[in-house]
Amino acid sequence: MTRSISAAAKAPLGKRILKNWQLYLFVLPAVAYFIIFKYVPLYGIQIAFRNYKAADGFFGSEWVGLAHFIRFFRSYYFGTVIRNTLTITGLSLLLGFPVPILFALLLNEILHTKYQKLIQTISLAPHFISTVVMCGMLIIFLNPTTGLFNHIRSALGLTSFNYLQSASGFKWIYILSGIWQETGWSSIIYFAALAGVDSALLEAARIDGANKWQRIWHINLPVLVPTIVILLIMQCGSLLSVGFEKVYLLQNDTNLSASEVISTYVYKVGLIKSDFSFSTAVEMFNSVINCILLLLVNFIAGRLGETSLW
Amino acid sequence: MRRNRFDRSKDDIVFDSINYCLMTAVLVIVLYPLVYILGASFSDPYKVASGEMWLYPVEFTLEGYQYLLKYSEIWVSYGNTIVYTIAGTILNLVVTLPCAYALSRKDFVGRGWLMLLIMIPMYFTGGLVPTYITVKRLGLLDTRLMLIVGGATATYNLIVSRTFFSSTIPMELQEAGVIDGCSNWKLFIRIVMPLSMPIVAVMAMFFGVGHWNEYFGAMIYLKSRSLYPLQLILREILIQSEVAAEMAMVDSDLIESAARQARISDMIKYTAIVISIAPMLLVYGFLQRYFVKGIMIGAIKG
Fold first, then answer.
1. CATH code of the domain covering residue A252
2. Among A213, A280, B139, B295, whose CB has the most other CB atoms within 10 angstroms?
3. What is the mean pLDDT of chain B?
4. Residue B278 located in a structural domain
5. Residue B130 and residue A47: Cβ atoms within 8 Å?
6. How close is the nearest chain B Cα to the Cα of A74, in Å?
7. Residue B151 included in any domain
8. Interatomic CA distance for residues B17 and A110, integer angstroms
């Protein structure tokens, strides 16, 4: 039985490695990918502390310490991009996070299985629409004279409004369209967890006279709590990350004051103005804060309850 | 479950009625914009602009699609996207599934370290510029190859697949294979893979959609227009409105008003959206049976 898969690890290490030599070939391409496209750039992150020159390479460029970070903290954009980023992610968390939970709980109560499946299938569809098309749809729909939204406004007796030219409207467009596109998708994980609810418990509660609302509140929702906590921790870990694509595509000169976020700033400074080291410093600052937030929230959650990421 | 339908309390009947209305409203909110766009792509653009088209086509026309057909660049990019999607997805599966399987094996020495290697980039990466410089040094800038190998695998998908293998392929079966003298390679191909079609479908869909919708990587790494994928051309049509306006201009032999050009440009946008979304939604429709099931397996335990 030396070739057994689950046998206790009695054989010497070398033998256990040799026995499964083919498995190392299985992981080779993926490992190569991670090293080339993830770890080499990670090594290159040191240019945040250097003045990068292509001729000198990652390691050979002049060392300047924290100069780029200090320049970022002192720059006019620092406050703006941080504020915009936090506004968008904070509101997304506040509004976008509970919606999939609510949707999963309510969908779970639909008694006709076929109708339930239909709703779920269709609610997932918007997830497959690309960001470019999503933004294109928003631009068409929000057009002040020809767009669907303003046709609806005028049908309701309201005057037309140019949402995309308004700085204060930007975050709402971003968040509400995000809810439209991702609610079905995000709810899958909750919906799956609800399959684990003890049906005997539900039946007992029903016989004891608990109505549906009470059963959801006292039985179904508690089942979701571990999942909710884990996802919440992960969301908090990305409070300083707004996806680049959608913001960039919806940006225009008029809403820029509210729509310039860290990732779009990094792109513009780094690849358009070719200020490589500064841009890398900004992004590194962002990653570090994200990691700290993640660890912090994970620590707090671990203290408060049983659930944490690790 | 079924019994509940017949002996519900009064409270529950109220709850259900509200819930059914609510869920039906969700259905309408999700579907309406999509149906509207489909309708608008077949309608007279003036009727759409003035708000007379609400659901189904008004003054049916195929004009928008005719304009689009003449626009060769979009079809070149469509072809590029198909190439990137098919080649990219095949590579994704070949890289991801064997690795995920190896990671699911408890007797695989070093799997803890490998997991760490794979997890770290999820939280900490070199970022945009160092990655760009690396790609440039590799000579992959402005090549088709970059769009295919640039995302050869993904941490999240690796973990979902690993969870699938470790939770659905019975250990006893693999043991039996080993006793019969199967090598790991044969075990994977002959025994594990045939039982893993749901995860293959889900991964093909995840990666495939990613390639089809890819725009950021293409924007950064590609310069030549002949290599552009569909999404970059769509961006010009939908967001920057340049191409659509240009096409409308070129096509009009008569001197036409700006308003007319704007209407044609709108129509081209609606049709462009339809031709870009349709394939994804069709594939999703076919695969969705595996889909929810496959995601759930990964979601619960991952």
1. 1.10.3720.10
2. A280
3. 87
4. yes
5. yes
6. 22
7. yes
8. 10
